[in-house]
Amino acid sequence: MTIRPRQVGDAVVLTIPDTVGTVSSALLAKTLAVAVVPDAKLVVLDLRALGLVSMRVAKVLMAFADGCAERSVGCVLVPDAANASVHLVLDVVDPSALVPRFGTLDQALAGHTGTNGGAVHSLSFSEAEVDRVQGFLSTAYAPMRISGATGRAQARLTRLTAGAISVDELELGFAMAFEAGPTGRICLVDLQSGTVEDHLVRGQRAPERFGPGDLFSFAPPDLPVTGRIDHARARVTLLAPDLLAQVAGPERGIVPLAHRPVDDRAAGRLRSAIGHVRDTVLNAPETGPLLVSAASQYLAASVVQAFPGTACSSPSAMDDRDAHTGTLRRAMVFIESNADKDISAADIATAANVTLRAVQLSFRRHLGMTPMVYLRRVRLDGARADLRASGPGDVTVTRVGARWGFSRASTFAALYRAAYGESPSQTLHADTSPPRVSRHPELCES
Fold it and tell me: Which CATH architecture is the domain 121-306 placed in?
């Protein structure tokens, strides 16, 4: 496979051929790296020739974009505006659109600012075969297996998205049972017709049923869910979980959403907020980054106010009693032993045999940080040890970062530099020397 660069001023355009899926990830990454002009300030990945794009290929493209960011080179995408499947895959791999997307080459070359830009993207997609609907839903929301489908297996989706928020109009024209993995996002469903029955989140005691007029949280971002859906039409709103922490304040501790708003009035206010954001921001022909940011904060604040348990301002008496050094010690041992695995705050609390709020309070009280910040530092230390023990020809920074849970090379590099005062590449290429003590030198970091 050959990718020939086309230089336009200080930008270079790389047209990705439709045969990209037939080559290995390593060859694709190498081909992209070789194609970039050394002095380019902007790389435009033209994806309009792609009929389909796999998750594997999309991840390579995002890793390439992260590599550009490490070198202070901008990178943007130009997917075919009419190709819904490509947009869906990009939304899964890069849900917050951190790598900006443009409708045309002219827009990409003229409108790139080096940031997300707040651009609004839209797509429409429909499918009518059970196996393809399963793939379609898995790509749009979470890995999913459907069974027992009856009726005409037809699904339609129209999505408007900007930054860390998306609003979908979803229609499922048949009945089915489903098993869905974690969405990784706040997922709110406003059911307009049809039913969702036997809805059961892992750890929940009894299943729930939702009907027309119900607005509910599909599942916490890190938990799987099962149930049955019968001819449903719904508005589905997706938000990055970090948005809730931003509006609630880090000292208040975000916990999983309850399934239903506190009352009908709260549901009505949230429904109005979602409609306002969709109609006046996401559906606007030109929306700037400041407006997208303000709309995201407004929507997140509306969610925090509507759902019980979204933010906890004070711990219970039992949580307070459990937030002792023994809890902290058990949690720390679990984190140290499992830092290279995909673990959540809920997993840490389970291992410590206390509530999530209690383990959060113990870390705040005794270390001045959250459990996830501590986990991040343990992972950074593990990555640093691997880099120091390896030679430049043995590993890559991206591979080491990915092993320790940092999927984005640019994020890994920024966190690493903040913790150790040097880039991962500098550590990898440094002469071997006795390691300095670095086991959590910044215990007051939050």
Answer: Sandwich (2.60)
Token digits of residue 278 = 């969709």
Evaluate whether the domain defined by 5-111 bears CATH number 3.30.750.24: yes
pTM (two decimals):
0.51
User: Which of the four CATH numbers 1.10.10.60, 3.30.300.180, 1.25.40.10, 3.60.21.10 does domain 317-429 have?
Assistant: 1.10.10.60
Nearest Cα neighbor of 432 from 387, 393, 400 is 387
Please identify every stretch of the chain with a pLDDT value under 50, giving residue numbers as ranges.
111-119, 250-253, 312-313, 432-446
Q: What is the pLDDT of residue 153?
A: 76
Q: How far apart are CA 146 and CA 196, in angstroms?
A: 14
In this prediction, residue 436 carries a pLDDT of 43
